[in-house]
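We emphasize that the prediction below concerns an isolated chain of 353 residues; any contacts that depend on oligomerization or on bound cofactors are therefore not represented. The input was used exactly as deposited, without trimming of termini.
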Amino acid sequence: MLNMAQSYAEDTVQLSQEQLNNLGVSLGSAEIAKQFTVLNAPAKVVIPAANEYSVSASQAGLIAKLNASTGDSVKKGQVLAEINSPELLATQRLYLKALNEVQLNLLAYERDKKLIAEGVIADRRWQETSSQYNTLVFESNELKQLLEISGMTASEIDQLAKSHQLSGQLNIRAPIAGVVLDRMVKLGERVSLQAPLFKIATLDELWLELNIPHERIGRIKAGDDVLIDETNTSAEVMLIGQSVNPDNQTLQVKAKIRGKQVEVRAGQTINTQIIERLKTKAFKVPNTAIAQHEGKVFVFVRNAAGFTVTPITVLGKQGDDSIITGNFTDDQTLAIKGAVALKAQWLGLGSGE
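Result of the prediction step, given as a token string:
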């Protein structure tokens, strides 16, 4: 079935230049590929859980002032809100009372300490005196810790102990430097103990959450790159979920975005490409350069008489191109278009399949 200018061999196709032109074969070279797209997937930009903080009311009371709104940048220790709290007044009063009792018992404690050292009093009396004094000290320390938990600073507690001036104003402070993601209260609102007031986060680190079909998860591994479409931003796969979502049969993959970002925002839904870095020598060729026969895949490498039929392995596809490996180099000439016609010549089928 071959013309006189052609001959058939198991791994070669011999063609004249005229026949090559008639078959519409285009020549070119393979491009070295260092990576390829494993798959495309939508993703959501999220804040790592460790970087989010919930600020709640440490005492019940009335919101008297709000100093921060959603979207504001705040410094660590900055006052976010002021609460008028009767409970805080009561705790301060108990603390001052405990301090006073400690002072009253201190004289007796120091006196009996001296007397027991001189052997004047019995051990039983010293034990009673020291026990009573230590109990009062423990109670005052406990109340001091409650004031700290309520939001009073050490300097504010020291000033309270010196001045004995009670104040029901509770300052709610930012636990970190960050951005206010949400403010859940309004001015004049009454809040209960532990009621959520603000949500704050540091945005220096952002992650991507991708839901990958379970049948594709085997193509992804930790360390793979994730490129965000239409940006210069990339991420690295850090965690691959171990359980399948029964509703959509996907596994969750998390990737850490590299560097501080200005091109994406928390909560944003974006399109991404998961990229695998190639460790073996690979090439990118047009899909039109590839032919298949009996379950094997080939390209046609130019030689002096025509083409050498060269087996390849397809690693993946990127649109109109394929990423392949094979026994050839990037400086050799391939048939980058017309592989189907060459396959027909190779198999002795003339110009058709």
